Every structure is written in structure tokens, then in C-alpha cells.
Amino acid sequence: MENSEQTTLEALLARAADTGQGIPDFLAALLDSTVLVPGWAEPAADGEGQLATFAPLTSGDGSSVQPFYTSEARLAETQAAIPGYETRYLALSCRAFWDMTRGARLVLNPHSPQGKEFLPGEIAQLLDGVAPMTPNVLTKDTEVLVGAPAQIPDGMEQTLAELFARHPQVERAFLGWKVTPENNDQAYLLVLVGSRDTRDAVSEDLGSALVYYSQVHPVDVAFAGPREKHLLTSLQPFYTRPASRRSLFGRRG
Question: Helix %, strand %, coil % for the chain, to 5?
């Protein structure tokens, strides 16, 4: 029987899979949930604690993947599709399970219409809570097409605006969509306009904020000075630092 946590989690998964919206909400809820993992536990050889053994599946290319499930109903779908598959399972914290299996390919609800594969790099980002902020230098003759994004993940602009409000170095922020035809690279493009130390000031917080939003498409970040032209100059900023207010009354000596 499904509990309210499982029902909510599967509703978030369905919304993320069907519409592409609410992905950060789903990932955050998944990490904090209890998941079901086919396998069993037995006493460790040294008599201290227990040793868990997980039952993998074989993917279409012959490689091994480890399934896990949001509910018994989703696990039953695999057991029906693969007669003789392991019937025992462990209920584990998703965060703990991911940490135990770092480096492995995992697949959530593999026989459900809303299944989701998680690759090792993606899992590491979500566990560590930081999206990588690595330099990417384009050659002068590289063609780059930019414009307004057709779709913006729920809450992305609000989350970023709240973050930038805490960093006075950021004067304006623009969000666009970038395509590099040479390699068909597609990504969100975030341009921050501010002082010279903007990159150093915001990189750590920005990496944490972008970790959920970068799971569907990468988010490239560029920095520009207050008077510099940049790739998104033609767009309206989604964040502008409010002008500082000055008192109408001067101080008297």
C-alpha cells in the first residue's frame, strides 16, 4: 500500500517527466525520500553491522544498472516483466543509497512510463549539492546563436534573483538560450553584469543554486562588466539590483 510520501513523489515524477516542469522539486523530494532497492542484508563477516547486496538489471547494451523504486507497485512492474527477478528488497534513504553506490548507473522505476536513469556524474552533483563551474573558452570564429528561452524551469528565476539580492556585486542578470551549431551544444545562458569580483563572490552559492536546474540542460554562466556588451544585451534582465535610496535630509554638523 502506498503512503502519502510515495504518492507525492510519484506525482512530482510524472509532472517532471511529462512536462519538464518541477524537476528541482522532484529531485529534492527524491533525495529526502525512502526508496525500495531489490536485494537483501545479512550480518557482516566480522559480526559488526550488516552487509547489503543489491540485485542489478542488465540494460539493452549489456551493461549493469542498479534499479530502485518509489513504491512496491513500481517494483511489482519489474517483477512482472522479468519472471524470477529478486523479490526481496530493502527500504533505504535515497541519499544513503546513492552514497553507497557512487560511480554506478542507477535507474528509477525502470518498467514504469515515468522511469529515470541517473548517471554517476549527475548523482555526484546532486549528492554534493554543487553544479560544476568550469571555464569554457570559445575561439574567436565560433558561431553562437542566442535568444530568449522557450521554457524556463519553475522557480529558476526567483531562486536566482533571491541569491543575487544577497550579493551586491551583481547589478543585473539575464537568462537566455544558447546554441553552438558546430557541435549542436544547447544550454541555458546566464549572464551576470557586475563588478570585477562578481565571479569570485557568487560562484560557490551559484553552483549550489544551479545543481537542480542543470539536470535537464546545462547552464552556462558568463560575466560582464557594467558597460560591456554581452551575448544577451538585446534581452531584458530578469534581475536588476534596486537603486540605493538616499535620504532627502542631509546630516547637520
Answer: 30, 25, 45
98 neighbors 130 (Cβ within 8 angstroms): no
Q: Give the whole-angstrom CA distance, residue 152 versus residue 129.
A: 21
Residue 181 neighbours by CB under 8 Å, 6+ apart:
143, 145
Helix (H, G, I), strand (E, B) or coil at 64: strand
Digit-coded pLDDT (tens) for 189-235: 888 999 888 989 998 889 888 888 887 778 899 999 998 999 899 99
- What is the phi-psi region of residue 241: left when phi exceeds 0, alpha when psi lies from -120 to 50, beta otherwise? beta
Buried b / exposed e along 41-79 (16+ C-beta atoms within 10 A): eeeeeeeeeeebebbbbeeeeeeebbbbbbbeebbebbb
Higher pLDDT, 249 or 35: 35
Number of residues that this document lists for the chain:
253
Go through the domains of the chain in sequence order and give each one's CATH number: 4-128 (3.40.1350.90), 145-240 (3.30.300)
Per-residue confidence (pLDDT) for residue 47, from 0 to 100: 72
Give the model's pLDDT for residue 208: 85
Q: Would the pLDDT of 250 be above 70? A: no
Instruction: Take residue 11 and report the three cell numbers written for it.
Output: 506525482
CA 168/CA 173 separation, integer angstroms? 12
CA 221, CA 136: separation in Å to the nearest integer?
A: 9
